[in-house]
Amino acid sequence: MDDSSRPHRAAIVDDFLESEGTARMEWPAYSQDLNPIENLWDALGLAVCRRFRHPAKLRDLETAIQEEWRLLDSTVVDHLVTSMITHCTLCMTLRGAHISY
Predict the structure, then answer these.
(1) What is the DSSP string of 71-92?
(2) What number of other Cβ atoms are within 10 A of residue 33's Cβ?
(3) Residue 96, Cβ neighbours under 10 Å: how many?
(4) Membrane-spanning residues where (predicted)?
(5) Alpha helices in 1-101 (DSSP H)
(6) Which of 47, 49, 63, 97 is most deeply packed, by most CB within 10 A?
(7) pLDDT tens digit string along 54-69?
(8) Cα 26 to the chain's mean position, in Å?
């Protein structure tokens, strides 16, 4: 995956990928729509916020994140995986621009 960011274009990275026979996959610059983990983080964040708005201690937040991660409905993940075909098609149609939902 290559989003054309500067670290991904460094000569040393290019040399290493070439030496390993790894082909780059072109990736649009505005590819948040093709990163399902962002939607997963959003679902996790919403679940944590439903518990409490502002945790008093960092440990409380850490515990809440871990508990909500375990409780996260697998249908959320399944939907993110199956929706990738639609997201990729829309992204290609929009030439990498943001997909409006």
Answers:
(1) H--HHHHHHHHHTHHHHHHHHH
(2) 21
(3) 17
(4) none
(5) 11-19, 36-51, 58-71, 74-82, 84-93
(6) 47
(7) 778 899 999 999 999 9
(8) 17
